[in-house]
Design goal:
Shape: globular
Radius of gyration: 25 Å
Family: Belongs to the TRAFAC class translation factor GTPase superfamily. Classic translation factor GTPase family. PrfC subfamily.
Strand content: 25-35%
Number of strands: 33
Main location: cytoplasm
Structural class: alpha+beta
Largest sheet: 8 strands, antiparallel
Protein name: Peptide chain release factor 3
Pfam families: EF-G_D2, GTP_EFTU, RF3_C
Organism: Thermithiobacillus plumbiphilus
Bound molecules: guanosine-5'-diphosphate
Helix content: 25-40%
Number of helices: 16
């Protein structure tokens, strides 16, 4: 046991223990565009954490997830995706919680909401491609809470774009300052490694390093004659380049990183396990531990003794017949123990949690204890919703777990009108799970579904049939985006509702929303109704 761990063990007061345990947590998610290397990097991070022994495990899972569109498969995959939703592993006496952000076809609102439950994010960029669309969207969500971002420029073992140009692109497109921490030496076939600007050392690249135990060769100091022996002219080039980089880029500032204004940038190659350790070091050394969380009444600090937490995701469990769901709860303070009674604040009822699950090493295990920053899974039958808060009795409601304005819309029709009741019930429940959003037009037209990823519609159609016996047809609808409406002047609001009834709807929770046919339409309507506020996100009830 090291000194720090021993200190914690020796700490007598329960409060101090809770504080010390919480401080060791690092909870983060990876944001990236499909194919940038998220899966590969996740796997290497788990290898470093000793959570998996063999490379290829995560990738195999990904392949099975996407190889088929057979819906029976989706049912099976639900079990797998529950297990992979959160991956907890140890690193340097810390406990790292990596939250999966569903991407690719299963990109959904969950992808966004996961980002509200982390304290930092790792942005992975394909160095040959630069900043891509999905990364832009995800970073926008991170910005809602000024989440600190670490950047990894991946695939340097391939021909990539000029590193300086990549930094410029991140700065101009994503509007965040870049502070290079490592700098690549060559790329593609001439990729030699990286120079660590803060440690003044050169990490040498050897392709194909798959396991964490292989020691990396390091040359200390840029002026080290070993450099010249090894690299000849390339050493001189590097020295010149580093001088240039130091002059032209921002030095790393912890404070700016923590405020979400600056991102430390690392170059490497996930598939070769190169540069991965440096990211984990940055996560442990620089990324924040659990942050205080705002509620409607006060901010809850992670080192408070009493347990609190909120639910940011609901996932239907394997067996659709049982309607068993797992609610993902982020612990915000205190210590959670097995068998604990906690108060479900929306329902104002105490519930005993005897079978919460944790996500150690990819396997679901029974939770013995959890601290701020940790995620636990709670089995339930639909009585827990996204945004629900839990405590030991104090009435508080965490904020900051929003619904996001959908970007895709479909009109719902049913083949058999007799089933309309089941349709409504099914959609209501699926909306509560966050699988889709439902809009009921004021003028009584067909229900409109909203989503941020196309697969959401397919999953909803499939589950309506399988679980509610409803055959639904989804048709295109002339809606481009939605905005939730608020207005302090009741008369203006009534007028707004009357004049624009054809474009207004109530969402699943009864909130008024404006369904805009285009971006221009939205802008014009906003201009015409200056007293009305149009919200792109809505807090959970
Ligand atoms: P994801 O879609 O972001 O999860 O990306 P994957 O991890 O599945 O990677 C996409 C593709 O890029 C796969 O074929 C990987 O083998 C490949 N890849 C990932 N990292 C690297 C890298 O460092 N170098 C090279 N050359 N290929 C990589």
């Amino acid at each position: 046991m090291n000194d720090f761990a021993q200190t914690i063990e020796n700490t007598s007061s329960r409060g101090e223990r809770v504080a010390a345990k919480a401080a060791l947590r690092r909870t983060f998610a990876i944001i990236s565009h499909p194919d940038a290397g998220k899966t590969t990097l996740t796997e290497k991070l788990l290898l470093f954490g000793g959570a998996i022994q063999l490379a290829g495990t995560v990738k195999a899972r990904k392949a099975s997830r996407h190889a088929t569109s057979d819906w029976m498969e989706i049912e099976k995959q639900r079990g797998i995706s529950v297990a992979s939703s959160v991956m907890q592993f140890p690193f340097r006496e810390h406990v790292v919680n990596l939250l999966d952000t569903p991407g690719h076809q299963d990109f959904s609102e969950d992808t966004y909401r996961v980002l509200t439950a982390v304290d930092s994010a790792l942005m992975v960029i394909d160095a040959a491609k630069g900043v891509e669309t999905q990364t832009v969207k995800l970073l926008d969500v991170c910005r809602l809470r000024d989440t600190p971002i670490i950047t990894f420029m991946n695939k340097m073992d391939r021909e990539a774009r000029d590193p300086m140009e990549l930094l410029d692109e991140v700065e101009s497109v994503l509007k965040i300052q870049c502070a290079p921490v490592t700098w690549p030496i060559g790329m593609g076939k001439r990729f030699r490694g990286v120079y660590h600007l803060l440690r003044d050392s050169i990490l040498l690249f050897q392709p194909g390093q798959e396991s964490r135990n292989q020691a990396m060769e390091v040359i200390e100091g840029l002026d080290n004659p070993q450099m010249d022996e090894r690299f000849g002219d390339q050493a001189r080039e590097l020295r010149d380049e580093v001088e240039l980089v130091r002059g032209a880029s921002h030095p790393f500032k912890l404070e700016a990183f923590l405020a979400g204004r600056q991102t430390p940038v690392f170059f490497g190659s996930a598939i070769n396990n190169f540069g991965v350790r440096e990211i984990l070091d940055a996560l442990v050394d620089w990324a924040p531990g659990p942050q205080p969380r705002q509620t409607t009444t006060r901010a809850v600090k992670p080192d408070e003794e009493k347990f609190t937490g909120f639910v940011f995701k609901i996932q239907a469990n394997m067996d659709p017949q049982h309607r068993d769901r797992i609610a993902f709860l982020r612990v915000c303070s205190g210590r959670f123990e097995r068998g604990m009674r906690i108060r479900h604040l929306r329902m104002n009822r105490d519930i005993q949690i005897s079978n919460a699950i944790t996500f150690m090493a990819q396997e679901r295990e029974q939770v013995e204890e959890a601290y701020a920053g940790d995620i636990i899974g709670l089995h339930n039958h639909g009585n827990i919703q996204i945004g629900d808060s839990f405590s030991l009795g104090e009435a508080l409601q965490f904020t900051g777990v929003p619904y996001f304005a959908p970007e895709l819309f479909r009109r719902v029709r049913i083949k058999n009108p007799i089933k309309v009741k089941q349709l409504h019930k099914g959609l209501q429940q699926l909306a509560e799970e966050g699988a889709t959003q439902v809009f009921k037009p004021l003028n009584g037209g067909d229900l409109v579904l909203g989503a941020v990823g196309v697969l959401q519609f397919e999953v909803v159609a499939h589950r309506l049939k399988a679980e509610y016996g409803v055959d639904a047809v989804f048709e295109p609808v002339n809606t481009h985006t939605a905005r939730w409406i608020s207005c302090s002047d009741a008369r203006v609001l009534a007028d707004f509702e009357k004049k624009l009834a054809d474009q207004l709807a109530h969402d699943g929770a009864g909130n008024l929303a404006y369904l805009a046919s285009s971006r221009v339409n939205l802008e014009l309507t906003q201009e015409r109704w200056p007293q009305v506020t149009f919200h792109a996100t809505r807090e959970h009830a």
